[in-house]
Design brief:
alpha+beta; Immunoglobulin-like; 10-stranded antiparallel β-sheet; 15 strands
Length: 379
């Protein structure tokens, strides 16, 4: 009997090994790689702005956009970007306008006048924009009377008027071919703009001096608007959600089915922070083609597939511990996903798939610059 038992036992062992080998080869094998963690809303997401910010944005001359009480993140970011530019440029442009106002009275030759105007419109882009904005808004009113102001000097530029797609455009052209165009979409606006065009054409020093004086006051006013917008909009922007980009490679022969939610966990100095729940919002395939994930839907990743998941948290207040930890610098964190699997009894179970901890934060770029320098020094 022994001689039969041994082969039978060997067959059973071999069959069991084959079954488990087949199961191993046929299982789900996920490789998770945490790519990035950033703060901010989707460009089309709405945010509550508030009456104060709406009022300030409407009085901020140097923005083509006004905020509403509920505005998209892209619009908020656009206005914030313009306010940031004004903050940076305003002090220097005030000094520039003051110097140009002094210099204007010393321009005598046609060449001096042309150089003056081209410098004003190029180096003084913010200053000249305040002038044109003031004219358009009827805050800077120039006289239409030019008789007796031409003197003996010739015109310093030519003026060209044309209509394109129903809109009139007036261009002032300096030799050899430097030009600046004004779009005029109403008769009332034409009445305001043409005196400015004429003042430039004949280099009317009194009118241009008035323009520069207006620009100095307007820049200071818009700088104060920009300061308020930067403070208020920063709080709104910083209260946005976290976005996480997570690359997943399924090296197995079976599709992986994931819960639509994941967890952002921290470690090290931030170990006491609570877990932040994230929802899988979008799947990017290997060609970066997006697929939106509907609410209350599981996520499937096919065998031998590589995808990038975009996950997003709920909005987080700027004062929240997680947001504060991110803003202060490096945040060591990982992502945990729940994958569905079948138990031996047929009941559904969940397996936790986690990334290794990685460092991200507001100064991530600077830290990576330092890291690559260190690595280069050691090799």
């Amino acid at each position: 009997m022994v001689e039969y038992v041994i082969p039978l036992a060997a067959a059973l062992v071999g069959g069991t090994a084959g079954f488990w080998l087949l199961s191993i080869r046929d299982r789900v094998r996920l490789n998770l790689n945490l790519i990035s963690i950033t703060k901010g809303r989707h460009p089309d997401d709405m945010a509550d702005v508030g009456d104060r910010m709406v009022e300030i944005s409407e009085s901020f001359r140097l923005s083509d956009l006004d905020l509403e009480k509920h505005a998209t993140d892209s619009k908020i970011q656009c206005i914030r970007s313009r306010a940031k530019d004004v903050q940076a440029e305003a002090p220097g442009q005030v000094d520039f306008a003051r110097e140009m106002r002094r210099r204007i009275w010393h321009c005598r030759s046609t060449e001096d006048k042309i150089d003056f105007m081209t410098e004003l419109m190029n180096d003084g882009e913010l200053t000249f924009r305040e002038i044109t904005t003031g004219v358009r808004r009827n805050e800077l009113v120039l006289s239409k009377e030019t008789d007796g102001k031409r003197g003996e000097a010739s015109d310093i530029c030519s003026v060209e008027t044309q209509t394109i797609d129903g809109s009139k455009s007036v261009a002032i052209i300096f030799p050899p071919d430097r030009r600046h165009s004004f779009t005029i979409d109403s008769p009332a606006l034409e009445d305001r703009v043409l005196p400015l065009v004429e003042a430039i054409k004949i280099f009317d020093k009194e009118a241009l001096d008035k323009c520069l004086g207006f620009a100095i006051d307007a820049i200071k006013y818009d700088q104060s608007r920009a300061d308020i917008l930067m403070g208020g909009l920063r709080e709104i922007v910083d209260s946005g959600p976290f976005r996480v980009d997570l690359m997943i490679v399924n090296k197995g022969n079976r599709a992986a089915v994931l819960s639509p939610y994941a967890a952002l966990t921290t470690s090290g100095a931030t170990s006491s922070l609570p877990v932040e729940i994230l929802r899988i919002e979008t799947i990017l395939d290997s060609e970066n083609e997006p697929t939106e994930v509907p609410a209350s839907s599981f996520v499937s990743i096919g065998p031998h597939a590589a995808v990038t998941l975009i996950l997003r948290s709920d909005p987080i207040e700027a004062s929240a511990p997680l947001a504060a930890a991110y803003d202060k610098g490096i945040l060591s964190c990982s992502i945990a996903l729940a994958r569905l699997k079948s138990g031996i009894s047929g009941n559904l179970k969940y397996k936790v798939e986690k990334t290794v901890h990685k460092d991200f934060g507001a100064d991530f770029d600077e830290k990576m610059r330092e890291k690559v320098l260190q690595l280069a020094d050691h090799h």
